[in-house]
Amino acid sequence: PFVIVFILISCTSKAQDSKFKIGLIGGPNYTSLFGNEVIKDAYNSGLQYNAGIGLDYHLVKRLSLISGLLLEQNYSYADIHYTDQFGTPTYSTIAKSTFHQLNLPIALKIKLIDRKLNLYTNIGTNFQYLTKYIYSADDGLNTRNFNQTNNYNRFNIGLITSLGSSYKISKFWNLSLEVRNNLGLSNAAKNGNLKINSTSLLFGIHYHL
């Protein structure tokens, strides 16, 4: 659906200067959990992805307001080993934690270098809606999935900081590459203290409306 909307808007837009840009962005993310020492020490950071639509509204020469809507998965895992009464390993499993989220970023974009190839930084807020949380237990033979969404808060907020570059390939199109960090500020868990930090490498293609 993101691709269809993007193509329709691009095809119906008039060839004129505009303050708006719309784009498709996406790429891998690297997630870590923090907030309490047990979770921080037990869980390893994991790779997943995010993808969606990015919006850019030009305010003045070097300042823009960015937003959009992204689908994001935040993944981490823990290796759990069981032993018998003598300390002999008997059983191992991987506990997997996956947050499925919708992200609404609102941030100020500052152009550090404003040329055909430009450099920019973003700082702002990320509003997140948890659509689903899945806890999985994988023993190497079978994977059991448990929907534990009700144990987590649906709405969360984070701090966005990023550094990126974009390159103008034509009058209306440009490509971008951005490293974006989202630091969780609110508690993701209803019981206990748990926050999410994710760093994404976002590739994008953008159209000037």
Give a description of the structure.
The chain is built from 2 helices and 9 strands. A hairpin with a 2-residue loop joins β2 (44-60) and β3. By secondary structure, the chain is mainly beta.
Q: Quick recap of the structure?
A:
This protein is mainly beta.
Features:
209 residues, mainly beta, elongated
Number of helical regions: 2
Q: Give a count of the beta strands, DSSP E runs of length 2 or more.
A: 9
Task: Encode the helix/strand succession as letters.
Answer: HEHEEEEEEEE
Catalogue the unreliable spans.
12-16
Topology:
Layout: H1 2-12, E1 20-34, H2 37-42, E2 44-60, E3 63-83, E4 89-113, E5 117-138, E6 143-147, E7 155-168, E8 173-184, E9 195-208
Antiparallel strand pairs: 1-2, 1-9, 2-3, 3-4, 4-5, 5-6, 5-7, 7-8, 8-9
